[in-house]
Each structure stands twice: as structure tokens, then as C-alpha cells.
Write a structure and sequence with these properties.
The structure is a single chain. By secondary structure, this protein is mainly alpha-helical. The protein has 17 helices and no strands. The chain has a single domain, classed as Up-down Bundle (Growth Hormone, Chain: A), CATH 1.20.1250.20.
């Protein structure tokens, strides 16, 4: 594996780890800086998480477009440097407002995922891009698993220790990238930065004229909206449905993250070879719909854990969709496309927690006429069915770019 590819995978892994590292200490840290009880700390935690997602949604197209104009290398290294400094800020923060500022900066710097994907598209032949994007997904999955585990261990050394560790990881990757990363964009011939394409709505309009892209983008968004049921309500669902402890909930999420890493890092290649991108997306949605339906109705906790491999198979959907859209975009617009895809997934993370927790609360409150803790997963199943119907209506022709 080329050093530059290792750097790209490490970048998304550290991004995921950085988020997971701080999760275990956020309740205590917020309670400290606010002198608040747990319920109020949870409210502020929601504000911080939403702020992060909103910033990522707003700025990902801009960061992607900047990489189209000025190159992937400076954008990646600058974003990682800002990320490292942001973790230092949060490690030193003595007020909730500094933590909020840190999440604003963090959401912007976390747009490195868009440029990382654009870099992989630059160095990979179109027919190999789905597997390459799968490697990025595997890196994120590995970081999702390692982050909370490492964060829980580091929390033993204080609420600030995970932030310092995340800063060191990001800074170390900057040094590694400075050594191994080579530019893939010819900045001399690059088109001027278009501010119309550097915002989410403008980028969507600019890409909407390409055959099939706008509908594929909607399918991509619906997948992430449905998938976001896991981080949104899994802990509440596990406790309500099976009486799981926090350790059991964390372990089940780690198992899911590990299975996702295996699927996107290895299994996706033979699946793509056998079924191509269209068939891979169809298989992924069938697995997703089946899993959501079973999770909503199964009442045996061990059975849910046994469904993990089937649930993880839905992880083949994003890289296959990315490859289909990437093949319809010219090289000088790859960064803009990947930025828009990052915005789509970030928007899903803005919307999903509010929607999924509201559905869960409506069907588990003391006053509900029908108690049904699995209701959010039924909603995700419906969203997946809609996405599948939309996808089947997209004509998948040979790669076309204008």
C-alpha cells in the first residue's frame, strides 16, 4: 500500500477516533465547566454535537472546492493542523462557550473527509473507486471502534487527557502527510474558485445538471438518515428493550464498528467484482431493510448481536454510490462532489437525532397508547425502502461527465 494511501486512511481514522475519544468524558467535562447536573449537561452535549454537524454541513463543499482550486495537499495538511490546535483549545477550555467554539472549529476542520475522498478518486481508476472509498470507510469504522475504547481508558487520567491525545494524533499525521503526500491537482490549470459551488445549495444546483447525480445524492442522504438511527437511539433502545448496561451498549457499538470496517475494507471488493456498483447498492439496501425490520421486532438481546454482520453489510452502499457519482463528475470537480457528499451525511446527522429520539420518546413515554421501543427502526426501514425505490429508477449508464 502506498504511503499516501496510508496517510489518507489514517486521516479519516484519526478524525473518527478524535470524535470517539472525547465522548466518554464529555458529560463530566460539561458538568465541570457549567457546574451543571447530568440532565443539563446532556442538553449542552446535544447542542455541541449539533453545532459540529451543522458546521460540517455548511463548510464541506467549500473545503472540497478549495482542494479543487489550490490542491489536496495544502487543504489536508491545513485542516489537520487546525484540528490539532482545536483539540488543544478544548483541552484548555474553562467555559462552555470555549467548548462551543471548539466544536465550531472542529466541524469545519472535520471536512477533511471530503478532500481525502477526492484524493483517492484522483489516484484511482474509475472502476476501482468503490473499493478505494471502501478503504476510507474501513478507516473510519476502525476509528469508530478504537476511539471510545481509548477515550474510556484515557479518562482515567482526567477529563482533559483524551483531548491532548487527539491533538497529538492529529499533529503526528500532519508530519507524516508532509513527508509522503504528493499533490494530485494541477493548480495552474484549475478553474477559479466558484463561490456558487462552495456552499451546499449552490453545489447541489451545480451538480444537478449531471445525469443521475441529484437522485443518487438523495439516495445517499436517505441512507445516512436511516443509518443514523444507530448513534441516535441505540443506547436508549438497548436499555429500554433489553435492559443493557452502558458497558454492554458500548460493546455492541464496538462490535458493529468492527464489522463495518471488515465489510468496507475487505468484503466490498468481491461483492463489487461479482455484482458491480448497481448490484452492490441493491444488495446493501436489501440487507439494511431486513435488519431494521428484525431489530424493531426482536425481543432477545443476543439475537440483536447476531444480526450485526447482516447490519454491517449495508456498509457497502456508500462507497458504491460514491463511485457511481464520481464517474459522472470531471476531475476538476471531484473535490466539490466529495464535499457535497460530506455535507449530505452531516445534514443527516443534524436531522436524525431530533427525529429518531422524538419517535422513540413518542412510543416509550408513560402516556403512549402503544409501547414500541423499536419504532425508530421501522422509520429507518421505511426510509431505506424509499431510497431503494428511488435508486432503481436511476439509469446507470457508462460513466458520463460533461
Amino acid at each position: 500500500m502506498r504511503p499516501a494511501v496510508i496517510f489518507i486512511i489514517l486521516t479519516v481514522m484519526i478524525d473518527a477516533m478524535g470524535i470517539g475519544l472525547i465522548i466518554p468524558v464529555m458529560p463530566d467535562l460539561i458538568a465541570q465547566v457549567q457546574s451543571a447536573d447530568l440532565s443539563r449537561a446532556a442538553l449542552w452535549g446535544g447542542v455541541l454535537a449539533t453545532t459540529f454537524a451543522v458546521m460540517q454541513f455548511l463548510f464541506s463543499p467549500l473545503v472540497g472546492s478549495l482542494s479543487d482550486r489550490f490542491g489536496r495537499r495544502p487543504v489536508l495538511l491545513t485542516s489537520l493542523t487546525v484540528m490539532a490546535l482545536d483539540y488543544v483549545l478544548m483541552a484548555l477550555a474553562g467555559s462552555i462557550w470555549l467548548l462551543l467554539l471548539g466544536r465550531v472549529i472542529g466541524g469545519i476542520s472535520a471536512a477533511t473527509g471530503a478532500t481525502a475522498s477526492a484524493y483517492m478518486a484522483d489516484i484511482t481508476r474509475p472502476e476501482k473507486r468503490a473499493a478505494a472509498f471502501g478503504m476510507i470507510g474501513a478507516g473510519f469504522g476502525a476509528g469508530f471502534v478504537l476511539g471510545p475504547v481509548a477515550g474510556g481508558f484515557l479518562a482515567e487520567f482526567g477529563t482533559r487527557a483524551p483531548f491532548w491525545s487527539a491533538a497529538v494524533l492529529a499533529a503526528g499525521n500532519v508530519i507524516f502527510g508532509w513527508i509522503v503526500l504528493r499533490e494530485t491537482v494541477n493548480t495552474r490549470s484549475a478553474a477559479p474558485l466558484s463561490w456558487r459551488r462552495a456552499n451546499p445549495l449552490g453545489a447541489l444546483r451545480a451538480l444537478g445538471d449531471l445525469p443521475g447525480v441529484s437522485r443518487l445524492l438523495l439516495v445517499y442522504f436517505l441512507y445516512h438518515l436511516a443509518f443514523a438511527v444507530y448513534p441516535s437511539v441505540w443506547s436508549y433502545f438497548g436499555k429500554a428493550q433489553f435492559g443493557w448496561s452502558p458497558a454492554m451498549i458500548g460493546g455492541s457499538l464496538a462490535l458493529f464498528g468492527a464489522a463495518m470496517a471488515v465489510v468496507q475494507g475487505g468484503l466490498i471488493r468481491p461483492v463489487l467484482h461479482r455484482f458491480a456498483e448497481r448490484g452492490t447498492v441493491l444488495i446493501g439496501f436489501v440487507c439494511s431493510i431486513t435488519t431494521f425490520g428484525l431489530i424493531a421486532t426482536v425481543t432477545w438481546g443476543s439475537a440483536i448481536l447476531m444480526l450485526t454482520p447482516l447490519a454491517a453489510l449495508a456498509g457497502v452502499i456508500p462507497p458504491a454510490l460514491q463511485a457511481l457519482m464520481s464517474a459522472r463528475v470531471t476531475p476538476e470537480r471531484q473535490g466539490a462532489l466529495q464535499g457535497l457528499l460530506t455535507s449530505a451525511s452531516a445534514l443527516a446527522m443534524v436531522v436524525a437525532p431530533l427525529v429518531m429520539t422524538s419517535v422513540f420518546a413518542a412510543f416509550t413515554s408513560a402516556s403512549t397508547p402503544v409501547y414500541f421501543a423499536g419504532a425508530p427502526f421501522v422509520l429507518s426501514m421505511i426510509l431505506s425502502v424509499v431510497a431503494l425505490v428511488l435508486f432503481r429508477r436511476v439509469r446507470i449508464n457508462p460513466a458520463h461527465v460533461d
